[in-house]
Amino acid sequence: MAEESIGIDKRTQHGFTQLAHVTDEPHILGVTVSQEEPQLWVVFVNVAEFVREEPLETEFRRTVERSLSGVNGVKSVEEADREVWVVEGNVQGEELLRATVSGLKTIHEQLKAYVESIFNP
Asked: Could you give the 3-state DSSP secondary structure of residue 89?
């Protein structure tokens, strides 16, 4: 299966990398991945701020965790805060970003409908 092309904004400072998904729907598909240490990454998922009702919240969180855990080289994934997952392992940030965005796309329609219901009741 061919890898889907996504827009990525990559910045490197002091030897560490930050990557962001470039999208027309940042409130739904916005993801940022930052390298904190050589084998420690922080993944920030924008839509997590809004998803607070079941059963979507559980499905969303499971999707993110499964997506990150499925990246080759990941040793652990921990939800550190409402919008933040910490990933440990010998991985590339771009792989984490692509996996997370891909996972979000599998539930995109549910996320979009939910977020729109919040802003357009």
From this structure: strand
Which residues share a beta bridge with 10? 19
Asked if 68 and 99 touch (Cβ cutoff 8 Å), the reply is yes
Q: Which tens digit of pLDDT belongs to each residue from 26-58?
A: 999 999 999 999 899 999 999 999 999 999 999
Which one, of 24, 93, 106, 25, lies nearest residue 60 by Cα? Answer: 106
pTM over 0.85: yes
Domain 7-119: which topology?
A: Ribosomal Protein S8; Chain: A, domain 1 (3.30.1370)
- What is the C-alpha radius of gyration for the chain, rounded to an integer number of angstroms? 14
Contacts of 107 (CB under 8 A, 6+ apart): 56, 59, 60, 63
- Average pLDDT for consecutive 10-residue bins of the chain (121 residues)? 70 86 94 94 97 96 98 97 97 96 97 92 73
The domain ranges of the chain are: 7-119
